[in-house]
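Bug: token stream looks shifted between consecutive jobs. Job 1:
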Amino acid sequence: HGAAEPVMAVNVLRQCALALQKASEFNVVHRDIKPENIMLATNGDVKVTDFGLARINNDPSRQALTQIGITMGTPLYMSPEQVEGRPLDSRSDIYSLGVTLYQTLAGQPPFDGENALAIALRQVQEKAKPLATIRPDAPPELCRLIHQMMAKDPADRPADPATLLKEIRKIRMDVDQDWTDVAGK
């Protein structure tokens, strides 16, 4: 439905990060974080769904057989390492969540193309247009964090969902606006 209010985006980001943290505790990588797999209730509750592509990262030999060289996911939201068929961890889900939040605020995904391959290549090779130029009303901390989540190198992203949650807490929001006001619009 177009671009969302920043307070809504932060609400979705925080609750998705909590879900990813819980999955990470069980060594689960979702591998298909995208808007269609994030359910939003009118009361502000957010649920991450469709763990159909999820992997448990606790057996290195099995991971190598089933993951390296195999690309699964949705190209609009796939991390560069996922596109390239490299091993994945929770930072890949953080990237996909960053792309999803970018779209939430911008009203469109950061990368597009004529086909899945073109989009996948852009995920690997290009940086997204600065979100702050598209949404100057969004808190600068939020824009910075989303771009950090979308860093091409996993080492440049938040290390894990717990670290992401710590960064989310640093985002300053307008205290006069709350989720229920936004959800009612």
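Job 2, same session, no restart:
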Amino acid sequence: LDERDLPRVLTIFWRHAVVGLAPSLAAPAVLSAGARSERVLLAGLWFDRSLPRPGGGPELRVGVAPLFPFWQVQGAWPAPQEPGHAAAGFALAARLGLRLGDEVEVAVADRKARFVVAAIVRTGGFEDDELMVNLEAAQALLGQPGRISRAMVSAVTVPLDAFGRREPADMTRREFEKWFCTPYVTSVARQVQEAVPGSRARPVWSMAEAEAR
């Protein structure tokens, strides 16, 4: 996907319900730390920054830091102006003996880059095995300028009822308008998908239903 299309998410009908946005670009890489090396998943992210709203208005704080405030962070998230800083997942850091301030080398094909470990992150998920860097740094290393592989969108929604679970294709025009104008996770996802060219938007059901309740 094109990173430049992300602000389109803030133009949908339920744009004021969108409270978080975190794009990423991930690919396998070889991480070397001293005499140790390991094949890892390199993830380029927005950590914590502001995104202007199309048409003006207050900027939206975006990235994984505001989207996942329950992640445990030792150190400090790399700032957007720190392309040489990285955050290491807790499990990855434990295996390679990484500490804050350590320098690592990341290789993808014939391209290499060095990063300083500025944070060690424990999420309880797959991120614990990743090396996370600023999105722009990953795009440069992977030879994918301006590209992303996915984006997490957080929006305030209402719990799904029987009507909200219906298939929009089977609705009458009036029913579809009611569904479209109700902030169900399904209707918001459809609007996000329509706004971002080439995308497919899928609800993260476990999180969506818990947050809606």
